[in-house]
Amino acid sequence: MHIPSHRVSQEMASEPASVWYVPANDGAELAVLIKAPAPSLKALIAGCSLKLIFGKSHSFLCTGAIIADVPDAPFALSGVQRESEEHYALARLLHERRAPLFLFNEMDICVAETTISFSEQSAHDALELMGELRDLYIGPFTDDASHALDCFEYTQDPVQYRPNASKIPCTEITPEIGAWSATTNYFYGAHSFQPVAINNPDEGKSLEDTVWAILSSVFPNALFKNSTILKGQKKREFTDAFAFYPHGSFLIEAKNLSIFSSGFQRTQFRRTAGVQKQVKKAIGQLIGACKDFAAGREIYSAGSDLIEVDRTQPPHCIVLITELTPTGSWDEISELLFDTMRDTRAFFHVLDLQELIMLLKGSSGDARLFDYHLMQRAKLFCETKSVLIRSQMSAKDCDP
Predict the structure, then answer these.
(1) Are the C-beta atoms of 103 and 111 separated by less than 8 Å?
(2) In sequence order, what are the beta bridge partners of 258?
(3) How confident is the model at residue 191 (pLDDT cuts 50, 70, 90)?
(4) Residues of 248-257 as b/e, b for ≥16 C-beta within 10 angstroms?
């Protein structure tokens, strides 16, 4: 496991995905860090290929990676390297041609590690591109740095429009990847703890466990997994996760995108269609749960304890998926959500892990702020009728 420095932790908290080349163990070693959505990390662990890419625009050194998690739409991440320690760490890596690689998920948690190595020729090409280290840019993310990044991304994918962007010199490294070692992270709540491991073959349960881990600090005494509701003389499942505070309630259905059992060979169309099918199912489940909640039916914890909750405020009903991509049409889902909110008078949301965690980071662990941000997000959804909404926090807002 690698524990990032304070600076890298701040950057990692505000970036949805990126790659860092950093010194480790007080400079005695090196480390490559990649943050990406969990489905892409699972695909890496399952055996998909990885490319490390580099580009140079004037004095700006751009770095990135391509994870071949979807055959026709691999996941790409990119950035501008702006720290001297990262320039020197990358140069040292290219000379040594071997280093540990650590994966970080949406929670900024190290979830797996391995060792990568690569050829002398590919290292030579990257060193030639870098040039003299003293000539590389060091400093804040300026407009010029932003333009360099646009040029880098345009060079990698000319189909995507980038204003005034032009192609720049680039090179890539396809490393050999060693055996993966997954990390089991333990999350402690007020009364229990939850182990979470990215390589858990029961991916549905793993997502539910992750939801508990994410929300346990915000709702330490009012978070329940697999709660049930009394309907007639029988109990049936209420929601995957249920949380509340004095002024609001949150009903969550988690739908996992399977990677280990289904593989990473599905096209983007098939993958999106599968996710949308799960979203529709979850919305139907939440409609039923919302009606039961409004009707005042008794809710019980997994341990059969009666849960007393104020029901005067409309609940937030959250469909949580592992990844929400902008590919394909989401109009049908948007219309369904809009009609459902109008009919139930409750707030309905479709979020992925990245968005949920970003909202929680911006709420600083305060349930009231989380409630407020969800309401503001629902207002924006009603204005745009689009589920493709992303929240963004600055590194300062996300300071751990």
Answers:
(1) yes
(2) none
(3) low
(4) bbbbbbbbbb
Neighbours of 387 (CB within 10 A): 21
Distance CA 127, CA 95 (A): 8
- Say whether 329 sits in a helix, a strand or coil: coil
260 pLDDT band, cuts 50/70/90, is: confident
* Measured distance CA(116)–CA(113) in Å, rounded: 10
Whole-model pTM: value is: 0.90
C-alpha 370/C-alpha 363 separation (Å) is 5
* Residue percentage of the chain with pLDDT more than 90: 70
* Residue 356 pLDDT: 93
Query: What is d(CA 232, CA 235) in angstroms, rounded to the nearest whole number?
Result: 8
Residue with tokens 């280990």: 260
DSSP 164: T
Tokens coding 184: 């089991």
Sheet hosting strand 306-307, strand order edge to edge = 234-237, 228-231, 299-300, 306-307
Report pLDDT for 400. 46
Are 352 and 272 spatial neighbours (Cβ–Cβ below 8 Å)? no
Which residues, listed in sequence order, are joined to residue 300 by a DSSP beta bridge? 228, 306
Please state the rounded mean pLDDT for residues 318-328. Answer: 89
Type of residue numbered 200: N
Distance CA 19, CA 182 (A): 19
Mean pLDDT of 111-131: 97
